[in-house]
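User: Here's a chain of 782 residues. Predict its fold as tokens.
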Amino acid sequence: MEERHRRRDLKLYYGLENGDQESESSVQHAMINSTDPCNLDGSNFQPQTYLSKLIQERSLTELMDEEQKMVKDIRGLDSDMQTLVYENYNKFISATDTIRKMKNDFRKMEDEMDHLASNMSAITNFSASISGTLQDRRQQITKLAGVHSLLKKLQFLFELPARLNKCIEMEAYVQAVRYYTKAQRVLHQYDHMPSFQGIHADCESIIKQLRGKLMERFRQKESTAKQLTECVDLLTQLGEPAESLCDEFLSHAKQKLDEDLDEMKTQIKLYSGEPAPGQEQRPAHAYMNAGMDVLEFVDLGCNGFLSNMCLVIASYNDMFMNRTVTDESLDTIALRKLVLFVNELMEQYFNSVRQRVQLEKETGDNTILVRALDRFHRRLQAMNKLLPDTDFSRAGTEIVSRGARDRVSHYLQSLKQHFADCLTDIRQNLAAPRLVGKQDNTARLSELLANMQSSVVEQIKSVLGNLQAFIAPDITFAMKPYFRGPFCSQDVREGLVVAFIKHICSTCNDFCEVPGDKTSSPPALLMILSRFCIDLENASISYLLSLAEEQFMVEDRMPLTSTTELFSMAKDTGQRLLNHYVRVQGLTISQMLRKSVETRDWLTTIEPRNVRAVMKRVVEDITAIDMQVGQLYEEGVRKERSSDSSRRTHALSASQPNRRPQWNYAPSVDNSLMSNIQKLFSEKIEIFSAVEFSKVSVLTGIVKISLKTFLECVRLRTFGKYGLQQIQVDTHYLQLYLWRFVSDENLVQVLLDEIVCSAVHRCVCDKAMMEPSVIDLICDRG
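Assistant: Prediction complete.
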């Protein structure tokens, strides 16, 4: 620490370290120690005092260490002093060299200043000599110079007609206009003098001829932009009105642009299949002149119409807007004419592009269409930079968005057609004739459902993959928020996925309408569609919406259809289809039961020996329906079966003989009293209630409708003794088999009891019931 302080003090002594760089604490420390006689770095240092203090306070070993330390500090200080001396010596040498160089430079500068002063003195003397020599003849020389200039101007005027003719012959129109504009003011000023009248008349005649040649070149189609600019500039110098030149230029340019537009319209007609004007339509011509694809069409418009339009705008700006002599009123008029001209032709161009893009609805490839729209969008951005007072990007964006929306609409129609084809395939499979020994082949409803589900989902995924071409990162308009947001949310999610889901629900709801018998749908199709809608609610809707939102990064800024709404729609549709399926199947079985009751004479029928065939057919059909529904829906929940269910069938039969004396010997008592009392203590059976999504619930609904129809038909007939017994046999047979299909066997028992009771009430003869053992024998034999 002390050594570091000593070196710093040494540098301070020589002035090599700035005081601003030293810390305040070090300065204070140095000031405090400067008065200490034992401080080696202080000015009041006393060697004897310091030595005596060390001898008194230190041991021999410490004194030797202090000696070595002091020797080391002395050597370090000597080294620092040598270094400082060397540094100062180098600085002194550099300063000496600089001073010597400055002396040499100042000596050269003094010589040059002396030389310049002598030259200026000589020039002054020479100028004074010339002024003295010409002072007497100055006025005469000035007069002669003026006469000479006037003679040259007169000579130019007299030679002007010949010069103008020579320039016209050589097609040096710029030089001719320069000659004429140079002499025009003089000719007009001295037009009253006879000598100048002839020259003026000749020049006017020649200039009129020159105007004609310039206008002829201006109207030529082969004239380049440079030639047109030159013609306009020269005609303007010759006094031609700028407004008429603007109209003339735009009219001339319109001819070429109209040709480009006509070519585009011709290509549209060829692509749409219309024959070209004046051409006979033949198969070979139709094949060879099929028209350009949309990318070639856009290139035709960009390289032809838009390129020429840009050239016209640039030339027009150079000729009438970006002139050296500006006139604000003329610039305003010229700009207004140009904007009206460009807007009119661009509207026709947009109409042609719009028509051609709309023809791409029926194609399946998006790559070429997207590239064409991207190229079209890029060129319009360049047009906006060329003519800032117009905004073509809005119209171009509308065409691009409309083209993308048309593609979405096309894909939506293809999805609808695909769904209709799936329904047709299912109908054909269901209607196909069953082969002997292979009855189960056409009954695999689960396979038909799985095929339709996978086909629909894969088709939607394929469509979404195709539409991703519109948001590719290398597409210019795909990065614009005014296109990407509405396209992804409103067109793809809402206009395609959500619209297709709603179409599926709407189409399925149409099957729930009750048309004529000839156009009714197969019941199995209703069952498949019902399960399809339930699967939509459970998984497919969430999957499809998530897929669309992930692939197209849909944002929630715009109002979107909620998944809850779609879930509810699909579930309601599935419920309606399932209810309709139950009604259709119940109606089919009811028709058989109704005809079997209405076509039989129950008064004169013979004693029952077996179960009627229609009852066997009912059981067979319900069994087939059970197998059919079981392929698509789970079993469901059943109530626990009663242990004496096999015996309950004969409850009414066993109790009826005991009641016979009441009906025979108490005629004042109403026969339906006991039945009505029984109904009061039984639960009400709702026949057309909503069906749950389970096999037991579906079969319960069908059985309820069938038995209710059977009951109502029995109530409308009159029975004899054997007719009543036949009803007993039929209901017992149904009880033996139908209880296993329903959720609650009591429901079947109640309805069958009501059927038997109704038959008893409608019996006009001896109400003798058949013995239960006989009924069991007949049913077992049946």
